[in-house]
Amino acid sequence: MTHETPQNPPLAAALILLATVFIAATTLLAKALGTATLGPALHPLQISQGRFVFAFIAISTAVVVLKQKIRQPHLGLHIGRSTFGWGGVTLMFASVAFIPLADATAISFLNPVIGMVLAIPFLGERVGPWRWMAALIALGGALVLLRPTPESFQPAALLALGAALAMGAELIFIKKLAGREPPLQVLWVNNLIGMAIASAAALAVWQMPTPAQWGALAALGVMMAAAQACFINGMARADASFVAPFAYGTLVFAALYDALIFAILPDAITLLGAGIILSGAALLAWRESVNGKRPTVTLRRPAP
């Protein structure tokens, strides 16, 4: 069964931009929670648990208010998506405690490239020379951001790279789920399963948060739920090739938050690496729109 949504490109663009504001804010809160900003640093597994718990509460409230019925979810696809989504979120939260938000966010934009590669064996898609060129460009940008010299190498950047790999794998399940269930049902089931996985993983490292950390965890979860809702509804209201560029707003807002809150300004390497990655992602989105395909670049973000 498919679910059609009336097309409204201006609203779609606004929703995607709003989603990027929220997504970048979640990485900001994760950085604050993973450092000593709000109290003793919390483990990334606990931060991830808080994200899923409070997001599930927010989405469950919406389910009740909107009287959304949960019917025949494709559990296998949801479990796969939630597992990789949890892994990507956790690794992303771990990385931002050590490297600038802009660096981690830029590296995470490799996820459509990973999704493209995985789509070959798992979705039977064919990849032409233009798409391989886009992949190589984006990977070159990631190499720049990793700063692979003994003096400047950032080991924590490998965590962001791992997040991109997990998010790329999640794309495969998102594409398989596309149009099969109502958006709110997808969000509810995804966060329910994610909450179960995250809670089990956090048991060994859980510690009592400070009042400020409780507030940040709640805000993180609610903003992630809002970002997911905005993103899914935005994607449903316009062609993916139209909304793709607006998804890059995440990087802009991440850099802005870094500058305003942590007084960290992007350096030349960050700007160069991010520019190369976004060029590759944009080329991939353009080529797939030319081919009449739905660009994987717009299916997942950030999130961290």
TrEMBL record:
It is a multi-pass membrane protein. SUPFAM superfamilies: Multidrug resistance efflux transporter EmrE (SSF103481). GO terms for cellular component: membrane. The keyword Membrane applies. It holds the Pfam family EamA. The chain crosses the membrane at residues 46-66, 78-99, 105-123, 130-147, 153-174, 186-206, 212-231, 243-262, 268-286. Its main location: membrane. Residues 12-146, 156-285 form the EamA domain. It is found in: Membrane. Keywords: Membrane, Transmembrane, Transmembrane helix. InterPro entries: EamA_dom (IPR000620), EmrE-like (IPR037185). It comes from the Bacteria. Belongs to the drug/metabolite transporter (DMT) superfamily. 10 TMS drug/metabolite exporter (DME) (TC 2.A.7.3) family. This is Riboflavin transporter. It comes from Tritonibacter horizontis. The lineage of its organism: Bacteria, Pseudomonadati, Pseudomonadota, Alphaproteobacteria, Rhodobacterales.
